[in-house]
Amino acid sequence: MRVPNGASVAALNLSACDLTATGQIVFGLRRTRYDDGVDIAPLGATGVDLTGGCANYSVTFDTPVTVDNENYDYWLYVRWEGDFSTNLRFQALHAGYLLEVSPAPNYATFNDVPIGHPLHQFVEALTYWGITAGCGNGNFCADAPLTRGQMAVFLAKALGL
Hints:
7 strands; 2 domains; four-stranded antiparallel β-sheet; mainly beta; three-stranded antiparallel β-sheet; single chain; elongated
């Protein structure tokens, strides 16, 4: 899944087991430049000594990472250090992020939601992500009633279902 542009990645959560005496699991977030693949330094504390069993381990970034998909690729990674036996494993790595609506563009897709309209920023975000194409004839119809079926389509598209 691609994290939306402008989202703030605030934390990583690793579900892992370390039943070794010397093993260590290291996890984190990396960023590479989109144009040349040059690896940028890890984006946050990553080394975690998990000795002692199975649990969830979290890293919270001091400064959340703002996603810039236009210029960078982002990678979650997990690597083992020390003992590489089957007693060192992970089940899942999750990134926690906050979505923020992109700033309003300086154009209007729909005639009835022009620049400066209180809903402009939000309608344009839905249009950009392919969640809506409006109601036809160049309009969004912001004041029109919405059926449960239409809401189901909006939600399914927005949530990537």
